[in-house]
Write a structure and sequence with these properties.
By secondary structure, the protein is an alpha+beta fold. It has 2 domains: 1-45; 91-199, OB fold (Dihydrolipoamide Acetyltransferase, E2P) (Beta Barrel), CATH 2.40.50.1020. Helix content is 46%, strand content 29%. It has helices spanning 6-27, 35-87, 138-144, 190-199; strands spanning 90-94, 101-105, 109-115, 118-125, 128-135, 151-155, 158-161, 165-171, 174-179, 186-188. The strands form 3 sheets. A 5-stranded antiparallel beta sheet has the order 5-4-3-7-6. A 3-stranded antiparallel beta sheet has the order 8-9-10. A hairpin with a 2-residue loop joins strand 6 (151-155) and strand 7 (158-161). The chain is rod-shaped.
Length: 200
């Protein structure tokens, strides 16, 4: 059986039903056929093909939606797997003069703060938050962790692990982050606000 495009099927239905309707009116109803009557007949006969067209379109959109949902689930699983693998990697923090190094799992690093000539690394050990000072600048540390997408600069003195952000807060023109289980507020400056919102 030859399958025709839906619009061609609709046109055939419209043509045949219009001709049949006009024929019925002329020879059975004995109605005098005028242009106005023909126009009204065509309008009436448009209903079935338009309805069928809408029905086909809805079915097609449903199928596309189902395919997109399946694809989304597959991509989500891949992203979750990637994030899990990334969080289980170790990161090494090296002091400015290379005299000291400090390794942690990415999943344990909560945030990194500038502290004069040192950098304070806040990390989680079990359920306890701990801090470690290492002699370096935040700029140098940012270069060391650049390859890891979990970390984002939120202020000139602070880099945060996106995995630990609970919410972004605002009061007047001030913004700060609430970190899961951590009592201190993490400052957010306007310079980094847009990037942070995009990442969240």
């Amino acid at each position: 059986m030859l399958l025709l495009p839906s619009y061609l099927n609709g046109f055939i239905i419209l043509a045949l039903s219009s001709v049949a309707f006009v024929f019925y009116l002329r020879y059975v109803g004995l109605v005098s056929i005028t242009f106005f009557i023909t126009f009204r007949v065509v309008l009436i006969c448009l209903a079935p093909p338009v309805s069928l067209g809408i029905y086909d379109l809805i079915n097609e959109l449903k199928q596309q939606n189902e395919i997109l949902i399946i694809e989304k689930k597959i991509i989500q699983k891949q992203v979750e797997k990637y994030e899990e693998n990334a969080l289980n990697k170790s990161i090494e923090f090296i002091s400015e003069n290379n005299s000291e190094n400090f390794s942690l799992l990415i999943s344990d690093v909560v945030l990194i703060k500038s502290a004069d000539n040192y950098v304070e690394i806040v990390f989680k050990e079990g359920e306890i938050f701990k801090k470690k000072l290492i002699r370096n600048t935040l700029k140098n540390i940012e270069v060391q962790i650049k390859q890891y997408s979990n970390f984002l600069r939120c202020h000139r003195i602070c880099i945060v692990n996106l995995h630990y952000i609970e919410r972004l807060n605002r009061s007047n023109n001030n913004h700060w982050l609430t970190v899961k289980g951590f009592d201190e507020q993490v400052p957010v400056s306007r310079q980094y606000l847009l990037k942070l919102k995009e990442a969240l």
